[in-house]
Amino acid sequence: MCTAFPSINAGANGYKVVAVVDASGTYSKMAHKITLARVVQVSVVPMDTAAIASERQRTWHRDDAQQWAEIYTRIFPAKPLLIETCMKAQSVQKDGEALDSARNHHTRPSTLRRLRSRWPSRWS
Q1: Which residues, 6+ apart, have CB-to-CB distance to 23 below 8 Å?
Q2: Judgement on whether residues 38 and 75 belong to the same structural domain of the protein
Q3: In a 3-state reduction of DSSP, which class is residue 3?
Q4: What's the domain range around 28?
Q5: Annotated region Disordered: where (predicted)?
Q6: What sign has the CA pseudo-torsion 59, 64, 66, 69?
Q7: Looking at the domain assignment, is residue 75 inside a domain?
Q8: Nearest residue to 22 (alpha-carbon basis) of 44, 43, 47
Q9: Cβ–Cβ < 8 Å for 75, 81
Q10: Could you give the CA distance from residue 69 to residue 89 in angstroms, rounded to a whole number?
Q11: 74 and 108: one domain?
C-alpha cells in the first residue's frame, strides 16, 4: 500500500493517523492484508472513503445535507436510495411529520393473507 510508509512514519512522530485504504493500492490482496496488519500494529486507523465522509458529515441534520448526499452518490453510484432517505428525513423534520415508527399502522386482514401466501416461511 502506498500509504504504509508515510502512515508508519507519521505515527512514529506522534500524529494520529487514519489511512484511507480504498484510496491506495498494491500488487496483490495478500500484500494489502499484510500491510494493513502492519499499519494497525503501529496504531494507524484504517478506514474507507465512506467512513471518512461519514465522520466529517456527522449528521443529516445540517444545512448542506443535500451536498453530502451528492458526495455519497459519487462514492456509491448504485445507492440512489441514500438521497431519497436524506430528503425524506429533511421533510419529516421540516414538516413536523411523524416518524414511521411512531405511526399507528393497521394492516387489513386481506393484506395479511396475501403477504402470508407470498412468503409463508416469514410467517411461520
Answers
A1: 3, 49
A2: no
A3: coil
A4: 4-47
A5: 94-124
A6: negative
A7: yes
A8: 47
A9: no
A10: 12
A11: yes
Task: Indicate if the pLDDT at residue 122 is higher than 70.
Answer: no
Q: Are residues 81 and 39 in the same domain?
A: no
Helix (H/G/I), strand (E/B), else coil: 42: coil
Residues 81 and 35 in one domain: no
Query: pTM here?
Result: 0.54
**Whole-angstrom distance, CA of residue 33 vs CA of residue 51:** 19
- Report residue 35 as a C-alpha cell: 500491510
| C-alpha to C-alpha distance for 24 and 36, rounded to whole angstroms | 11
Same domain for 62 and 38: no
* Cell of residue 122, nine digits: 416469514
Q: Residues 87, 67: one domain?
A: yes
The b-or-e profile of 79-93 (16+ CB within 10 A means b, else e) is: eeebbeebeeebeee
Bridging pattern class, strands 18-20 and 45-47? parallel
How does pLDDT run across 21-79, given as a tens digit for each residue?
A: 888 888 898 988 998 999 999 899 999 888 888 888 888 888 998 888 888 878 777 66
Distance CA 17, CA 8 (A): 8
CA proximity to 54, closest of 42, 67, 72: 72
How many domains does the chain fold into?
Answer: 2
